[in-house]
Amino acid sequence: MKIKKYITDISIKYPKFIISIFILVTLSLAFFIPRIEVDTDPENMLSEEAFVRKFHNYAKNEFLLNDIIVVGVVNENRDEGVFNPKTLQDIDTLTQNIKTWDGVIKEDIISPSTQDNISQGGVGEVIFEWLMKEPPKTIEDSLKIKDNIMSNPVLKGTMVSEDGKALALYIPIKSKDMSYEYSVMIKNIISKFSNGDSYYISGLPVAEDTFGVQMFKQMEISAPLAMVIIFILLKVFFKKNSLILSPMIISIMSVLMTMGLLIGMGYKVHIMSSMIPIFLMPIAVVDSVHILSVFHDLYPESLNKEKALRDTMDELFVPMLYTSLTTCVGFASLALTPIPPVRIFGLFVSFGIAMAWILTVTFIPSYIILFIKEESLTNFGKNDDSKGSLIEKLLQKNSEFTFTHYKKIITATCILVLISVYGISKIIINDNPVIWFEKSHEIRKADKVLNEHFAGTYMAYLVLERDYENEDIKNALKKTQLLFDEYRGELGKETYDYLNQTADSTYKIMAESENYYVQEYYSKVKDQIEPTIDENDSFALEDVYDILGEYQSESQTFKNPKMLEYIDQLSQELDSNPNVGKSNSIIQIVKKVYQELLGGQEENFRIPGTNAGVAQSLLSFQNSHTPQMLWHFVTPDYEKGNIWVQLKNGDNKSMQEVSESIEAWMKNNNSPIKIKHNWAGLTYVNVIWQNEMVRGMLNSLMGSFIVVFLMMAFLFKSPLWGILSMIPLSVTVLFSYGMIGLVGKSYDMPVAVLSSLTLGLSVDFAIHFIERAREIYSEEKNWKTTLDKMHEKPARAVVKNSIIISIAFLPLLLAPLVPYKTVGILISAILMVSSIATFIILPALIKPLKERLFPEKNNR
């Protein structure tokens, strides 16, 4: 390859120029790193055009919903629990402080200080009084507040636990990226309380924002540790500090260039892109280790560093090119996923690997020429203490074992694949942002305690909406025409004709525009009639106008008693699901107010039998101190309804089970009025992007697998060699994910991403093995001799690489976040298993196929 010689020549002849250029490029890109912004919003796991994301935002706007921080107060030591004067005083102090903060929706805070007690004030009268206008002075008054809360179906189980030992505040905020800051401010306030109460802060917004803070700690710990480990391993293998600095420099420069470019292009650092440094550092040194290994072996033969470098580059240029390309393809294939942060991660890691390869084939030779003096290389490579080492002995035994027992190896591999496939069939797809923290983390503790005491801190919203059709507005037209016919004699022919013309033209205009909104139809007809009332001075026309108003009111879906009965049944179905703690809707408000209107008896806690009864209950509630609460459950036109569902845990599978059970129930139970439904809320959004992730990873894996296979077939000029090169990594991936299924580990975000990442990395070992095996065989013409020689210098280089790259990911185990730990242990295990599989499975497969793989006559 001319390009190979050209690159090597420039690197050796102009080392100062090469090094200066790369330092300049690195510093230029690193200049952007201080502009870093963090993004932990799960909504951004989906594109802005994704239906679920658009609908989630639509629901938030329609029902005035906001992200919520949950603050729980628990007192297990007192008989009255939290309902004592001192605790309620503290809760009031906390509430009043929070109400002063910018970014908090103070009118929607759920707290004893901000909610009403709904009570009976005589038949037909409802009294709305503050639950806790001021903190109580006695235990008796405190317990009365508890009783009043427990009598409110919206607050029971939501604000107060069934046993009265715990109370929760729900703090709606305008922007979830302020959650962590608010949680710190809350902690500062409660640190001054001294009543022996335990305070807990939970909610998905807090978990996600806290995760962003912890991400920086992870980067501060794991990345430097990875560098230290890589340095130590290089020191063990190559001894010379001055020489092993070059891979370290390449690793750092690759990371700085990649992160600088990412931030400079305006991308925020997500959980995925925060892993770029820890991924790039080990990968960036892989080719450098190969160069140092071969240089280490060749230098003693010539004692000329330039010649040794040229021979090294001549031997390794093509394998390094293809290993880098395959790794780039593995990461770049993530661009096929529908998850924007994953696409960004894959493309930028791919860029970083490409830069690492360019640096390796140019910077390393320049560095050695410029900074490594000949005299410092005295005895370099001569006293190779790897000979006779444990690694050397194991490699020799492996050579004999794979040659002699190849049939057993192939059989065992097939059995392993079958077991792995079975394990994969057992994989459960699940994730939960809260379990991204360790069990000892305060967020995990808060999550456990609060979900034990309350209905649930995970919010989802089932949005119901009238599904109008042309038939609906056509029926409204007929109903209007029948009304006009009833008053025909009193209206007079001219007015009657005008009214019919108005009704008909309004219908046609709306039908043509596919606007079947019945309320709007009645409103438009009324608007055209209103000016004629004064002109005609007709009582009949006034009656028609008033009746049309009644029709309009009756058409309001969520004032219809039959519809409310259906929602009540739907809510009961939700509440019966073990994953659901409680659901709240307009039903609780209507029932409670209607109960008090009729005298407060328990048997009157029901839905009114008429539209007028429902309307009266809702109108009464709007005289409360918190009338805006109604608009969280229904829109002002009463055409859209919202059921607030509180889940006991944030597992995606739990949310999925709830949505699937409701889907089945609604199919078997038709609503009296045709409606359509969709889900909103962060808990549901997480389900969708997780499912998208799984599908995307499958497409990514299949796409990159095909591309890598074609590259292997092209590199080795043989489809058979291409297939062989893919087998070790395929077995490794199957085995790794089979074990995940067998041990019951959930298939979550980090596990999903690793499938594509490991493909590009794992095939590297096979490329070097096959490339060197073919070279040696072309000289020896004997497979046994080739195999023995392969297990000497070439194998040692691959083993060194696999050890370095595998162990370099282990610092992730020290990260404070579970996803990083998962990535660390899995990718280290996968890479180590892949290298072992390469040395065991490939030789075993090559032996029975050697006549086809090496078609010489003297094949032995």
Automatic annotation (TrEMBL):
Its main location: membrane. Keywords: Cell membrane, Membrane, Plasmid, Transmembrane, Transmembrane helix. Residues 243-370 form the SSD domain. Signal peptide: none annotated. The keyword Transmembrane applies. It is a multi-pass membrane protein. It is found in: Cell membrane. It comes from Ilyobacter polytropus (strain ATCC 51220 / DSM 2926 / LMG 16218 / CuHBu1). This is RND superfamily exporter. GO terms for cellular component: plasma membrane. The chain crosses the membrane at residues 14-33, 221-238, 244-264, 276-296, 316-337, 344-372, 698-716, 722-743, 798-818, 824-846. The keyword Membrane applies. InterPro entries: MMPL_dom, Mycobact_MmpL, SSD. Pfam families: MMPL (PF03176). It comes from the Bacteria.
